C-alpha cells in the first residue's frame, strides 16, 4: 500500500481531515494521489445521476459515411453549451485558466459511444474461434466443453466487476480513461504502474502476434511465391490506415463488419470440412495431434494417415500439451483488459452491462458450436488456425482473405487501445502532451500509429518461435488482466465503500473539501471487509479466493509455456526476417 492509503491513520476516536481546503478538479494533477476515495465517489454519483437523463446514442453508418447528415443535430461531444476549450489539460497553468463547466465538457466530449458500439467492439476480439477445435483436441470432449463454459462465464463476471468499480469511481470531473485508473483509485500509484505496464506490453505483443499470423495468411494465399518478409509488412501498412480511426464510437461501426466477416469464415469452413478430408500435410506444424501425441498424425510406410480419433477426457500422453490447450481456452476470452477503455468512451456507461453479457454469450456460443464441429470432423488433425486446416486450396484461400480483413480491424482495435494507454499514461503524465480531443492531440495520435505498429512488427519478427514467447506473455499478462485484477479491484473498492459511515459524519464535503474518517487504517479495512451482512462478507471472501485461484492459473500457464519453449528450441528456429515461409514444407 502506498502513500495514498496512509490517510486512514489515526486514533479510533479521532475525526480524520484528509484535506482542509477545497481544490477544484481541474486544478488537480492528472493522477493526483491526494484525491481521496470519497471525493471520487461523490463526483461519480453526480455523473451517474446526470447520465440517467441522457438519451442513449444510436449506432448509425450514415454518420460516418456522410458527416453532413447530422449537421443540424446538437453536438453530443460537448456539454450544455457545446464549449470544449482547445487547451492542453496536461499543463497545470492551462487547467487553472478554464472553468469547471469547460473542464466537464471536455470530459463529455470523449463520451460518444453507444451500447451497440460496445457490443461490436467486444465481439471484434473473437480471434479465438479458429483455435477452439485445436483446443478441444488437446483437452477432449468433456474437459474442453466444461472449461470453455466455466472460463467464458468467469470472463463475463470479471467484466461485471470492472463495470461495478468503474461506475463507482468514474466521473466527468475525474474520468477513468484506462484500466490502470481503476488500479490507482482502489490500490494506489504502484498498482497503476504495474497494471499499465502489463496492459501495454500485452497489447503490443498481441498486435505483433496478429501481424505475423496474418502475414502467414498472405504467404499461404500467394502459394509461397511472395518473399515472406513482405507478407507481414503488407498487413502492417494496412494497419497504419485502420488505426487512424481514433474514437471507439466510429470504430464500433467498422467492428460490426468484422464480426460478420468472422461468422462468414466460420460458416465456410464448417461446410468445407464436412465434405473434405483434413489438411494432413500441414498437421505436423500445429495440430492437436502434433501437440498431444505425434504418432496419431504420422503416416505409415505407404503414406496413409491414421484415421480421425477423439478423446472423451484429457489425453494421457502429454500433460503439457493439454495445459496449453487449456490456456487456449482461457485466453480466448482475454478481452476484459479493453473494457475500461470501452466504458470510458460510452455516453451512458450503465448500458455497458447488457452489451457485455450479450457479447459474451455470442462469443461463447460461436466458440463452442464451431469448436465441437471442427473437432468432430477433424479430430487430432484439428489445426491451430482452422481455415488453414482446410484441404481444398480455393476454400482455404477464401478463409485466409476474409479473415485477413477481419483481423486488420481487430488488430487496429488493439493498436488503438494500446496507443491510448501509452499516450494517456506516458506522454500526458510525463511529457505533458495535449489531450486527444484537441487538434494537436489528434496530430500526435496519427504520428504515433506507424511507430507503434513498426515496434510491434520488429519485436514479433525478430524473436524465434514468437508464438511460444507470446504464450509466456499471455500467461503472465493477459490472464492476469482478465481474471486476476478484476476481483482485486472489486475487493479494494468494496472494502473502502463498506467502511464508509455517512450516518456517523464520515464523507466528503464539496463545499470545504474536507474528508472526514473515523478509526485507524486497520479498523476501517476490517470494518469494510466484514460489514454489510453475510452476503457482502461472502462476496468479499469469494473475490479473494477468485484472485488467488487465477494467480494459480497464471503459474500453471507459465509452466506450460516455458516447457513448450524449451521443446521448441531443441530444434533450429527461424525468425521472420526471411524469404522462406514457415508454412512452406517443401522449402
TrEMBL record:
InterPro entries: AA_transpt_TM. It is a multi-pass membrane protein. GO terms for molecular function: L-amino acid transmembrane transporter activity. Keywords: Membrane, Transmembrane, Transmembrane helix. The chain crosses the membrane at residues 117-139, 145-169, 190-210, 222-241, 253-274, 323-344, 356-378, 398-423, 443-463, 469-491, 544-562. Residues 13-24 have a biased composition (Polar residues). Residues 112-490 form the Amino acid transporter transmembrane domain. Pfam families: Aa_trans. It is found in: Membrane. The keyword Amino-acid biosynthesis does not apply. GO terms for cellular component: membrane. Residues 1-25 are annotated as: Disordered. Belongs to the amino acid/polyamine transporter 2 family. PANTHER family: AMINO ACID TRANSPORTER, AMINO ACID TRANSPORTER TRANSMEMBRANE DOMAIN-CONTAINING PROTEIN. This is Amino acid transporter transmembrane domain-containing protein. The lineage of its organism: Eukaryota, Fungi, Dikarya, Ascomycota, Pezizomycotina.
